[in-house]
Amino acid sequence: MKRLSEIGIGRKVIIKSFENDEIFIKLMEMGCIPGEMIRVEQKAPLGDPISITVAGYNLSLRLNEADHIFVEEII
């Protein structure tokens, strides 16, 4: 498993788990739940924030938030 912050632009991944409960509750409210597919759309010039597509909409996440999301790449 990798962290979402490590995934390259254009890659699709499945959310597997979260590192802590605090970030889980916040992200769950935005549609990021285990089993949901994410596509990394863009990264800011300095890498923070990143833009993802999840549950049919775009969402921006700070790298420190993406660092707490464990994902598995879809081949």
UniProtKB/TrEMBL annotation:
Annotated Ferrous iron transporter FeoA-like domain residues: 2-73
Record-linked SMART domains: FeoA
Classification via InterPro entries: Fe-transptr_FeoA-like (IPR007167), FeoA (IPR052713), FeoA_core_dom (IPR038157), Transcriptional_repressor_C (IPR008988)
Pfam family name, one: FeoA
Entry's transmembrane regions: none
Assigned keywords, A-Z: Iron
GO molecular function: transition metal ion binding
Name recorded for this polypeptide: Ferrous iron transport protein A
Native source organism of the sequence: Filimonas lacunae
